Amino acid sequence: MARLADYFVLVAFGPHPRGSGEGQGQILQRFPEKDWEDNPFPQGIELFCQPSGWQLCPERNPPTFFVAVLTDINSERHYCACLTFWEPVESTQEVVCNEDTTEKEEEADEGGQARLSSTAPAQPGQLFAPKTLVLVSRLDHTEVFRNSLGLIYAIHVEGLNVCLENVIGNLLTCTVPLAGGSQRTISLGAGDRQVIQTPLVDSLPVSRCSVALLFRQLGITNVLSLFCAALTEHKVLFLSRSYQRLADACRGLLALLFPLRYSFTYVPILPAQLLEVLSTPTPFIIGVNAAFQAETQELLDVIVADLDGGTVTVPECVHIPPLPEPLQSQTHSVLSMVLDPELELADLAFPPPTTSASSLKMQDKELRAVFLRLFAQLLQGYRWCLHIVRIHPEPVIRFHKAAFLGQRGLVEDDFLMKVLEGMAFAGFVSERGVPYRSTDLFDELVAHEVARMRADENHPHRVLRHVQELAEQLYKNENPYPAVAMHKVQRPGEASHLRRTHRPFPRLDEGTVQWIVDQAAAKMQGAPPAVKAERKTTVPSGPPMTAILERCSGPHINSARRLEVVRNCISYVFEGKMLEAKKLLPAVLRALKGRAARRCLAHELHLHVQQNRAVLDHQQFDFVVRMMNCCLQDCTSLDEHGIAAALLPLVTAFCRKLSPGVTQFAYSCVQEHVVWSTPQFWEAMFYGDVQTHIRALYLEPSDDRVSSSQEVGEAQSQDDERSALDVASEQRRLWPTLSQEKQQELVQKEESTVFSQAIHYANRMSYLLLPLDSSKSRLLRERAGLGDLESASNSLVTNSMAGSVAESYDTESGFEDAETCDVAGAVVRFINRFVDKVCTESGVTSDHLKGLHVMVPDIVQMHIETLEAVHRESKRLPPIQKPKLLRPRLLPGEECVLDGLRVYLLPDGREEGVGGSGGGPALLPAEGAVFLTTYRVIFTGMPTDPLVGEQVVVRSFPVAALTKEKRISVQTPVDQLLQDGLQLRSCTFQLLKMAFDEEVGSDSAELFRKQLHKLRYPPDIRGTFAFTLGSAHTPGRPPRVAKDKGPSLRTLSRNLVKNAKKTIGRQYVTRKKYNPPSWEHRGQPPPEDQEDEISVSEELEPSTLTPSSALKPSDRMTMSSLVERACCRDYQRLGLGTLSSSLSRAKSEPFRISPVNRMYAICRSYPGLLIVPQSIQDNALQRVSRCYRQNRFPVVCWRSGRSKAVLLRSGGLHGKGVVGLFKAQNTPSPGQTQADSSSLEQEKYLQAVVSSMPRYADSSGRNTLSSFSSAHMGGHGKWSSVRASGRSSGLGADVGSRLASRDLLSTPHTNGAPPDSGFLRPQRAALYIIGDKAQLKGVRPDPLQQWELVPIEVFEARQVKASFKKLLKACVPGCPATEPSPASFLRSLEDSEWLIQIHKLLQISVLVVELLDSGSSVLVSLEDGWDITTQVVSLVQLLSDPFYRTLEGFRLLVEKEWLSFGHRFSHRGAHTLAGQSSGFTPVFLQFLDCVHQVHLQFPMEFEFSQFYLKFLGYHHASRRFRTFLLDSDYERIELGLLYEEKGERRGQLACRSVWEYVDRLSKRTPMFYNYTYAPEDTEVLRPYSNVSNLKVWDFYTEETLAEGPLYDWELAQGPPEPPEEERPDGAAPQSRRRVVWPCYDSRPRVQPDAISRLLEELQRLETELGRPSERWKDTWDRVKAVQRLEGRQDGRGTSSSLLVSAVPHHRRSLGVYLQEGPVGSTLSLSLDSDQSSGSTTSSSRQAARRSTSTLYSQFQTAESENRSYEGTLYKKGAFMKPWKARWFVLDKTKHQLRYYDHRVDTECKGVIDLAEVEAVAPGTPTIGAPKTVDEKAFFDVKTTRRVYNFCAQDVPSAQQWVDRIQSCLSDA
Rounded CA gap, 1469 and 1471, in Å? Predict the structure, then answer.
């Protein structure tokens, strides 16, 4: 309860002491006379009674009433209700009498001054003096005051019989409740009754109609301006002629400011005498009578609102910040809807009947509701920005202004900034921040209605509804009871003021009044104090403010992608992937302009800090610091987004070790930011941390707090959700219930928490304020907003940025001296100021505060000392952090000889690696190191281009493949210095063009070259990797030291020679059965060969063993070993004879295996066993051998299974032998010299070869080519045009003309196409000798002989070498071409003539194939018989015999023709120092290229893939395996390589043989297998050989920079690409996509073909199911077998037959080039054609073959065997069943006749086993047989079980079926 009135005062006019015309007010009486204790009497009341001044008036004015407001020193407002009336001045008694009579007059209305009545006759010259009745109250009940004073005036004027003293006494003792909505009826004892209504909540202002009036007077825009001006602390002055209006306007403005309270000067009615107050510098709201408008003109910074004129004048120098949009416009529109509801309807065609506008009082509340909503929107979520610093004994609360603004994105907003900094808001925080108090409408609104307001924004009607709801509540607050009992108050009569009264206002009796007051006081004391119990609750916080999207809708809006980039970059940094991080950094720095990205950065960095510390390496440290600086440089001094706050703990966590004991933390590198020198930032941080700790203090689980029924865990989880304010509220609720000791303990705990945080912050501040180099006087920035240029310049920290921060600080930051101590002093002062402020605010004891002041200088000094060491060490950091060297992966047994030398790998002439026209990233130049191992030269590094990223670049090649090394001088890509470089070129088509880093000295580079040279050309073959690798595992041998290889190599070679001598005679003594060979040259022989016995001939002539150099261990044992050689297995397969001890079988076998060379006596470079004609004795062979170069006499190497023609090979003829053989016999000779006898032997030998051929054995006569017309021979010699680039063929032409003439283009095979098979005439020689044209010059063939010479022009080995060099340069150019274009590559390719040589080889080979196929034997006798001869005979066998096109067959072919027959691998590969001068001559590679060309043209004929050829091409030069070392079997035996001892076979040795390696790998992976393999049994391949048909082998051009060459499978398998699930992208969203770069990734590995993928999947599933996984080959074969049964018909009749018709019918290549790689092919074809689709030609061979091309609906193994013949037949069913047409398939492999329902049926309906068939005979039609068919089309098949009746469609097809079935029966 409170007193209604504190004082009643009577103030009258008195003369001015200085005698001026104006008078002054005098207090005549006041009641009570002594001041209340709680409320002293306000001074200066007399001024406010007559604000315009005390002046006499010539006429009577009506009484006036207004309420002035005085504010005392305690900011308490006193409401002075003033009722003024006029009395005549008492000059004479007469006057007084007259006045007495006219005194009793009625009061005027409220605006009494406006209506002056002059009806009463006033005496001339009569003056009237004002007298004022004043009620002083702290309550604002204007109407009650008006009524009460009016009653007193009425009693006086009307002379009522009421004691005024009683009335005043009652008035002063009347008490009313402050709030709660109660009604109180009071009576002053004059028969009056007044009802006082208290508001429901006293915190809500009572406005009555004042707000509505204010809007009526000024309008919306003006009121909004005044509202903003008042909130932003501007000076506001109201002008009006009415004092009541001034008071109402001020009251209305204050009501609008709710919930903020105006705390500056507030004078609604300012007296004239105090007008100088308007010049005060502080803000104010003041009302002044309009009469003094002139005096306000010169006020420059005051906003003047003229209520009478409806204007608001804002001076030019004043800027009123508007409300932030969209609130400004929203508020404006809602206000207009409230004030002018008809505005919405003004334009309607049919306006509704006018609705009654709200009453003025209601409108007032609606307007206030709009502003209440406005504040709720402005301040939504404000409670989340409160920091509760202390809870006990009183809550101390601070507002985190920066966070509040940051969340709303309104940091730049002038209005909100000023509001938050204002006094009103400070009061708001201290009043409303309290967590436990009574709540009001605003608390509810801001907590619960924000979401509704946001939802309503775009719906004006919903907004209006909400406003009306709020208005109702406000109205109800002021008028809780709608039916108010009427006031009953006596009022003076009309014009009573004009009556002549005879007496002035009487002097009242003080005693009476005082007694009444005392009586009431005594009563009050006796009564218990009526304290209204406040309902306190926890104030609801409402939802936290979700950050409004950053307002800059510019380029920095953060998408998830940006955050992903930031996350990835950080994860790369911490994974050490610096190049990846470097690539992302620009994007990250750009992303960090956005708030979300900065938050994300801080969050991600937090994840990498363990136990408050994270030690980084230099590069990581630089990256982290750089990103932190980028974050901080955009932080304002406020740090509104909390970025600096989030980074603050991190800058003291991330560090790097500079030297033992010296650690540099990140804070020394991020000091250059304005935020660190902003006290507000530190305060906000401090309060935030204190709040966290205080909350934790009360959240510690204490036993008494957790009740038994509640689980501790639950309590804990609830605690985690409770905010600090909730905790504080709970504590404030409990506070009164606690004992005093407990209270004291809590207060102490809180105080020490604050104190410990203060110490912590003193340390933190010293970290960030003290510069790294304190001598540089880098000082605090006291001025925020110091140019951002500096911070930008230093925030992008370069390499090792230590120390650099010191340079750019300004020295004018408010500190004069630049001494070190002064820096310290400045920091100490700054910290002390901070400590003082926060500790005082948070109630730290003075003792603690003193202690802090003592500690701060010590903390600073200590830190300065620590920094000195850091600064010193940081200066020593290297300028640039080089990337770490990446260690290459090594093979087992491969050792590093020279560790990594830093180099740059420069781009060469290939454009793939540098992006180029193909696109892709610039992988080169790359920065890394070159390593030299015993096996390879390896470069590993990363691209220097930071945008390419962390892609490891590997380029390597075997040391043995090095062909050229050249010193170069180049510019390094990074710093453009001229450096020494090295260019290494290898025959595996790799080029290392390197520039040495400046840190690599010239001696290191020289050492690298020498070691490389030493490894490339070892003095002995035993020094190569293939040998040293094995020796590393021999027991007792000291480990090899890289630097000194000599001794170890010598001992090794000694051991090996010893072993070799023993080996030859040691094994296979008793065995005669064929066993697999030793592991060097084994390969599982065909099973049918395993049981063959080979008898070893004992018949050895002593003469053959004479040469001393031959090896002489036991002959039998040597023989036994030789039998195992690959060639023997092949000879048995070809039926080329056996080793026989007697001549009894000589007649039956045309050839025999001769052991004549088993000791390598006749020919060192031949194998031990040779095939010779049966009729030639061993002793004759030695004589024959003398006629041939290198003693390489003709031996048989292959026999055609069909024509029985044989292929022989030999060295070229010696001149003498040739002459003796071919010159006329009648030349006189001095006698039979040795040469002549050799010639005769040679002739005999050739004759024996001719005789061995069945068709020529008995025939004689001139079946030679010499009978051809000489017209075709031209002047060039018959065979000269084998050189021609194209071959033309005529069907009827002879061989000579076909090869010699280019003119006979009689058939369409102009493209070097294979000639038709029928082109040779029956008259042809039995044996063609293909020899070098140069050797055969001038030789005339003897017409009597049965052989014929074919002189051709071939290239020599040196031409191959020269051509290969040019090819290397074309495919791997050393530097970019001047005008890069495909043409320049093609030109250089043409210049190399490599493809021309391939063309010649293929051309000769096809010619030999033709001759062999036509039944003539061929002897290839070119050069020394080991280069081109080997190429040709190998190719011929490959083209003629399908066996050699299998994996095993190709291995046999290479072992037989290349290894056994002595191709000089070591010599041609320049494997040793001796061969260095000869250089690399890739004869074997050329052969592989030819095979590749054939493979491309016939992809289905080869069991092996293209990758297999590349693999052999790579490893024949790599010296990793021993297979391709040495020049002959003889040398291999000498070194003990050919037959390894059994005991040494296994162990964990690496494979020594390439074949064994291939075997092992093939079991694991189908990389060497060709899925499209589906051969035809009898297929002889005739490839096109024109240059235009040849393709450049991609082995020469492709490379994989991701892992180096793929041919060392262990390395290529490498650490495989991390599966997408585990990719180390940090927290980045995992993508299943993968970018495959040309020349970087191996496409077949990254994306294997479908079949390999399925096989892998099968294996994986089997493993998961716990089954032993099956070998892929078994799975594949099984699937194919099923396909054979089912897939046959599926392919029928499909459009694929169109494919076939486009090519010659017997050719199956279709020119389809299959993608291939380590995992096989990626293409599967379906070819099919109907039997009738082939074009008929006269060639019988084609006719016979026509059906075979139809067999390929699927590429299946041996498809042709499975479906030998098929077609439709009618079959009679069993007993009583009808005839039915079925699709029949004759399968000669399974020996069965199967039938299906129709052609595409996959399920077999029945099988007739041909083994049970007894006869096939013509049949007769039976009942139900097809009518239209000829009788002869019927046939029966009789089996042991039953007779099957068949009917074909016509007679020929019936005949064909019968023939087919019978041929199958006869074959069986």
Answer: 5
